[in-house]
Amino acid sequence: QVQLVESGGGLVQAGGSLRLSCVVSGRTSSVYLMGWFRQAPGKEREFVAAISRTGANTDYADSVKGRFTISRDNAKNTVYLQMNSLKPEDTAVYYCAADRTYSWVAAARTEATEYDYWGQGTQVTVSS
């Protein structure tokens, strides 16, 4: 039906940068509200960032604000997460998610339960 595939994870040194990509594919042509979440061992899944269908609106967790940037290219059915000034605390599996809710205001976009489709995750490890 709808598939989300993340890529771009890896091992980087503290202070470095990494860009994650999420490609949406399947039998639907719908454009979704998109979000990024992350989960470290022993911790709950945590909201990172979200972006509206047009890309005009974005939302970030306080822990990543000023360091991470979410963007999208609807012509490529792809959403990105540019991560700069990475810290060891950013180490986690990062997940891409899609939300069918139309309204940016109405959507509980910081809650994992809001989203309808999820990718398999990509590992990000920040050393030191």
Q: What do these coordinates show?
A:
The relative contact order is 0.31. The protein is mainly β and 128 residues long. Strand 4 and strand 5 form a beta hairpin. The strands form 2 sheets. Strands 2, 4, 5, 6, 9, 10 and 11 form a 7-stranded mixed β-sheet that branches. Strands 1-3-8-7 form a 4-stranded antiparallel β-sheet, with no helix packed on it. The protein contains no helices and 11 strands. It is globular, with a radius of gyration of 14 Å. 0% of the residues lie in helices and 49% in strands.
Determine the number of helices (DSSP H or I, runs of at least 4 residues).
0
Order of helices and strands: EEEEEEEEEEE
Strand content: over 45%
- Helical content stands at under 10%
**Rg from C-alpha positions?**
14 Å
Helix-strand makeup class:
mainly beta
Question: How many E strands?
Answer: 11
Overall, the morphology is: globular
Biggest β-sheet, characterized? Answer: 7 strands, mixed
Unreliable stretches: none
Distance between the termini: 40 Å
Mean pLDDT: 95
Short structural description:
By secondary structure, the protein is an all-beta fold.
